[in-house]
TrEMBL record:
This is Electron transfer flavoprotein subunit beta. Keywords: Electron transport, Transport. PANTHER family: ELECTRON TRANSFER FLAVOPROTEIN BETA-SUBUNIT (PTHR21294), ELECTRON TRANSFER FLAVOPROTEIN SUBUNIT BETA (PTHR21294:SF8). It comes from Pedobacter vanadiisoli. The keyword Transport applies.
Length: 245
């Protein structure tokens, strides 16, 4: 089994987000980057599925050379090799097109992504890759198992769960529960230094969207604490100040 796992290079979850150039660009100064946590889940499941010589795991990232340390972490976690498409990721369409162009003649059995990246939360890449490659895509899966060439996939739906079977090649985006993220050990960290990391040039893709401006959420307002036994005062404030009743 050959599995391709798509990984994003995202700011650490503790990062303070700021913007530059009149709020048109993300300020990368001092930002620590990590493997997108949802992509780590996908990577961990891919490694589990190929353990014991059952297959190989390749990770792919669309980004510039600054992303290499993040890619090396994915190799330390257990991926066999890596590919970086040498281009700044413009949007989900651009990223998906680059992944599809690389994968189209590589005979991967499965392509896994995280459910979304934690910086843009778009949940678009997996479905777009499936469309570009003309293979099935399943979004936000919670469980993935194989019996021969047939995959059994579980998804949560309103009021229950949905169980699907897929034969042949497919794309899936992974959510919590598919696997527990793995922590690289010393052996993995050392071996990551010598594992192949291939850099390929991006293909030309039409521009379908463009960021014109970023905005941060409005600061939180002040809070008034009302003692639990002063219900009348609370009702009065909700009526006269908050104007919600």
């Amino acid at each position: 089994m050959k599995i391709l796992v798509c990984i994003s290079n995202v700011p650490d979850t503790t990062t303070k987000i700021t913007f530059t150039n009149d709020n048109t660009e993300f300020n990368t100064s001092g930002v620590q980057y990590i493997v997108n946590p949802y992509d780590e889940i996908a990577l961990s499941r891919a490694i589990e599925l190929t353990e014991g010589g059952k297959g190989t795991v390749t990770v792919i990232n669309v980004g510039e050379a600054a992303n290499d340390p993040t890619i090396r972490k994915a190799l330390a976690i257990g991926a066999d090799d890596a590919v970086r498409v040498n281009a700044a990721p413009r949007d989900a369409y651009f990223v998906a097109k680059q992944i599809a162009e690389y994968a189209k003649d590589k005979d991967f059995n499965v392509i896994l992504t995280g459910r979304e990246s934690i910086d843009y939360n778009g949940n678009q890449v997996a479905a777009m890759v499936g469309e570009f490659l003309d293979i099935p895509s399943v979004s936000i899966i919670k469980k993935l198992t194989f019996d021969g060439d047939t995959a059994t996939i579980e998804r949560e739906i309103e009021g229950g769960k949905e169980v699907l079977t897929v034969s042949g090649k497919f794309v899936a985006s992974c959510a919590e529960g598919v696997a527990e993220p793995k922590i690289p050990n010393m052996r993995g960290i050392m071996s990551a230094r010598t594992k192949p990391l291939t850099v390929v040039e991006a293909v030309a893709v039409e521009e379908v969207s463009k960021v014109t401006k970023y905005e941060t959420p409005a600061p939180r307002g002040t809070v008034k604490l009302i003692p639990a036994d002063q219900t009348e005062q609370l009702i009065n404030l909700l009526h006269s100040e908050a104007k919600v009743i």
